[in-house]
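Minutes, project check-in
Item: structure for the 593-residue chain
Input as provided by the requester:
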Amino acid sequence: METRTPAGPPGAYDRDVTQASTAAQSASAGQPESGPVEQTSDSGGPSSSGASSAGPPADGGGGRLPDVVRRRLATIDGRLDGNSWLATAVVVAIAAILRLVGLSDIKGKIFDEVYYARDGWALVEHGVEWNFKDNAPSYVVHPPLGKWLIGLGEWAFGYQDAEHNISVPGALLTTAPEFGWRISAVIAGTLSVLLLVRIARRMFRSTVLGCAAGLLLALDGFHLVLSRTALLDIFLLLFVLAAFGALVLDRDARRRRWARAVDAGLDPTAPGRAGRPPFAVPWWRLAAGLLLGLAFGVKWSALYFVPVFALMVILWEVGLRRSVGVRRPWRDALLDELPWLVLAGVTMALAYLATWTGWFLSDDGYYRLAERYPNTPGLSDTPVLGALQNLYTYHRAALDFHTTLSTPHKYQSWPWQWLLLGRPVAFHWSGEGNCGAPSCASEILLLGTPLLWWSFLPALAATAWLGIARRDWRAGAILLTVAAGLLPWFWFAISDGRVMFSFYTAPALPFLVLAVVYVLGAIISPAGARAPAPPGSAAAQEAYDRRLIGSVVAGVYVLLVAICFAYFYPIFVGQLIPYADWSARMWLDGRWI
């Protein structure tokens, strides 16, 4: 087979590939070549199986792409893998059942449902948020998409508000009103579990690890509570995770594109268009822009993920060009990809504006018409541009609210407390009812499953260590995204001391779970020999024993998380239990009360 050595000194990103390529070129033609560390089997370990593809298979005298680089560019293709989809369905079914059972048992609006459930119905009825008490537009400080989704459930299954004398049957089916305003959160939470299973499977090349990620998310109390409550944060989590998944798919699509082009005879060292693959629209990248726009349409904090995701795309594209031998990977990546990133940004902006469609089409929206707010500077009724100017003025007012929010709240907390579960939020509490004991308690506490959450900080440290040692793109992607979800809040806490709550952690949660699963994968299958040991050899037996022990350790961990979740389940869903049992679950005493 004819092989090509990439021009120029290899970067650290390709250290493993370069070492393996050197070994492969010195081996005899009849010996199997070893795969890169990145390639893993369905159980999480090294593999060079045909589960993934990056172009036509190499033969003795065929393609121009070295086999080791081909495996470097390989991508998993599980669309038609029935077993993986069956396993995914089981995990998703568990998540759905946990989120649906007893959804309307807690009556009335709890915590911030008093705002968002009403805003959701107002959007259905008026197209904008509405103050039913004053019969006037309502001033709100979050974009409307999450409330539209809540309103969709209310439209489908009915809405009631005794305080404002509203009772409307569902367009599809009339159920308990609590079901109507909570069902959209259930769907969003269940979809996020589905997405995490498939994203983790694609990243780790393992159905087992993918299902472990989804199951850990499904068994997290923090995620469960948000998935059963009409708040905005579960929708923000869903759209941010979906955008990340779209970027992972974009990464795979671009790698397949380059692999096919080099196999077809492309010389990546050639200047200009001659050294690039045929033109192709990065649809998944544009989809990521769309999804980020929708996330921004739920809460503005989605904006923190935009520069991080753009940086990841550039780093992935540079690494790809290094792998195939492009002479100036940084220059070419920036020239080729920046225009597409700009277009993705435009897509994001248009998607965000689309979430305000009800406000644009109505004359009743807050600040929509300048003539109704004569004492407010900065408003205009100029056609088209006036509406955009008024929306900008509205945004400035909302931003001022967020940046000056300093009224103390019982359940406020600081970012450095969040992963330690230092101050969870009580969504509901009641001591009424008969539980067979002298005193009873019913609580919905926004608390992460303790064993899982107290694993996050060690997992992040281990992910950083393993990522540096292995030059692993997956570790970098996980850590960067967690940083985007958490670090801005540290800045706000230090700079202006604004009031914050633990549910601001929500969009980072799936990536914290990915960090845990990344470490579990390393325990199951540590980086070792690149070529499989001969069957029956001592090395093969040692590798088997290590994988068996690692699998047992990982399985025991997931089982312990499930047991911990089951123990705290009553205070995740508001079950009425004896007060003594409730008190026994307050592990951190006053911090959790």
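Outcome recorded: Strands lie at 52-53, 75-76, 130-131, 136-137, 159-161, 166-168, 425-430, 440-446, 576-578.
No further action items on this chain.
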